[in-house]
Specification:
The chain is mostly helical. It contains two helices and no strands.
Length: 43
Amino acid sequence: MLFIDIGFDQDEAVVFQMRASLMSDLRLYIEKQVGNAQSEGEM
């Protein structure tokens, strides 16, 4: 796991990995919502 490889202990690494995954999912969701809103505005 990346966070263990760069020196974090197991507990911290798990939390950071969950946070990174959540942020990535949230970014994709927001991009999709913004894209949908822009498409609706073009009609």
